[in-house]
């Protein structure tokens, strides 16, 4: 077992064995995020789904109102004039067969891959390389599109793709420790609403099982997800 640091044990001692209100949990995680860098805050949601069944899978996107605080590197596979248009819209990498060949060789210097529909037959052949990393473009996630500029702008602004893992758990970053608690709460609320809105048709019984928030180097804190669902956003 990995050795637990004195710092982590001291921070863990501040977390009570109970569920906290959403804002209270966020503020506690921020207090505990005392590493020498701006820690990322993450939400971990256990859902009552079994993703091995197609009607119990969850894969979608969320537009975080205040972004993630992280720069995202976007690659685009397109052809012809669309390549130049993608670069003009802010893509970090853009190409056609040349980029496909690079990816096939394992060169993946990007966090997100967008493709135009006409290039998907070639992209599909990269499944063994892209699939395990969760980088395969998908129409439901908005990463297979003809509106390259729109997609690039949305993802650069804080739109995130996420999916439930094999255990039915969703892992999503929703900001930085330096954000205001109110902004982090708005981001977390947007995530909750997106998960509820995209509830799989085959989900049975209780949909939400647990919600924890944590920071890169800090302990996790349980959140009262019912209180988060009941929360009404101002505006």
Automatic annotation (TrEMBL):
PROSITE patterns, A to Z: RIBOSOMAL_L1
SUBUNIT field: Part of the 50S ribosomal subunit.
Pfam families in alphabetical order: Ribosomal_L1
Designated name of the protein: Large ribosomal subunit protein uL1
Assigned keywords, A-Z: Repressor, Ribonucleoprotein, Ribosomal protein, RNA-binding, rRNA-binding, Translation regulation, tRNA-binding
PANTHER family attached to this UniProt entry: 54S RIBOSOMAL PROTEIN L1, MITOCHONDRIAL, LARGE RIBOSOMAL SUBUNIT PROTEIN UL1M
GO biological process: regulation of translation; translation
